Amino acid sequence: MIAPYPDFSELSIGQRPVLHSLFKDMREGLSEFTFANIYLFRNAHDYKIAAIDERLYVITGREREQAFFMLPFGLPEEDMMDVLFSKFDFMRHATENQAGRLAGCGYMVHEDRSNFDYLYSREELASLSGRKFHKKKNLVNAFVGSYSYEGRPLLDEYKADALWILDEWRRERPEPGDYEAAKEALVKSEELELCGGIYYVEGKPAAYTLGEELAGGETFVIHFEKGVSGYKGLYQFVNQCFASILPEKYIYINREQDLGDEGLRQAKMSYKPVEFVKKYRVTSRRGPA
Question: What percent of the chain has pLDDT over 70?
Answer without folding.
Answer: 99
